[in-house]
Amino acid sequence: MQLAPFLVEHWLNTHELTARYNLAETDAKPFTIRELLELTGTHVDKLLDTRISYNPTLGSDSLRELIASFYPGSTANNVLVTTGAMEADFLLANILVDPGDTVIVQYPAYQVLYSVAEARGANVKFWHLKASEKFQPDLDQLEKLIDNKTKLLVLNIPHNPTGAVVNEADLKTILGWAEEKGFWVLCDEVYHDLALEAGKVPPYARTLSSRAISVGSMSKAYGLSGLRLGWFVGPQEFVEKAWQWKDYTSISNSPVSDLLAQLALANKQAIMDRNTAIARSNWEVLQGWLTKWQDLIDYIPPAAGVLAFPWLKRSDITGTDFCQGAFDQEGILLVPGEAFGQPGHFRIGFGGDPEIFASGLKQLSQYCAQL
After folding, report:
1. Domain that holds residue 74
2. For 91, which DSSP code?
3. Residue 28, CB-side half-sphere exposure with 13 Å CA sphere
4. Mean pLDDT throughout 179-188?
5. Which of 229, 244, 267 is the C-terminal boundary of a domain?
6. Which helix (H) or strand (E) covers residue 244, if one does?
7. For the domain that residue 342 is a member of, what is the CATH number?
8. What CATH number corresponds to the domain at position 217?
9. Does the CA dihedral 264-267-272-277 come out positive or negative?
10. pLDDT score of 305
11. What are the beta bridge partners of residue 153?
12. In terms of C-beta density within 10 A (0-12 exposed, 13-18 middle, 19 or more buried), how is residue 76 classed?
């Protein structure tokens, strides 16, 4: 299986270690272990007494039960804990997709959501989200993409990089098609609980249909990316098949990550209150900045998550030119739209530390003033 180069990750790995202002971060402001223990009212001895041994491949029973509790109708038997959502997406593509299958993917997309299927020999079709349509999903276009070989539809709600969402009514329509035609819907929901406006994000897909598989993570919405812990919730047979693949990939997660994930999930509301407040505050700052530079840059407000996907109004500047210039001159890290197949755009994350974010935008203004 030959995988295509991962363009976004290559860009980030090339630039992030020397960036002064990382505005490419895609997650909420990271917690320190001390902050997490204090927020959850946990004594440090609980962490210090954790035995650093192999964890169960499926994840601990207590963690899987806790994850399942967020998906009514599912049990621990429907949950596989993975090394981030990335591994969940990778495993699912490998157990679900065969050569010749049709796989439909919301696009632009985080590359693991389609490149693994391509490497498996699938016929990948893109369901395009267009700036000209305010990144609103077009169900008529999607219906035309579905054929008698469709095995899998991949959704990302809220969407990376645009922050768009599929509303509940449309999601139910899509899941109805899946039940009628017999394909599966993989819904990557790593930003699910970070809504800029209440009521914008639909329920977890797995709670709406047995044809849905929900993928989650401690990274994006929770601000705990260093735990490298994700999961999927789906049919038990998929858990068992993916378990066989996981024996060849990561084998198991760290018991320390397992413990800290349980603390965070058990205190989900407090964590989301903190992270949502930061995201909303930073978004207000970013909106003001984008308004200031409206002659150069245009944008569509995201509905949820911590990402926006503006674009340059000048055709003589590519997204790569803009992002590389901002990095070279001011040490600012952004992600060019070309890494998502979207020339002229750039992705900016607004979930991080408010002081660093505001300082980064100030420096970005200095760069823009030279263009």
Report:
1. 53-267
2. H
3. 30
4. 99
5. 267
6. helix 236-246
7. 3.90.1150.10
8. 3.40.640.10
9. negative
10. 97
11. 104, 185
12. buried
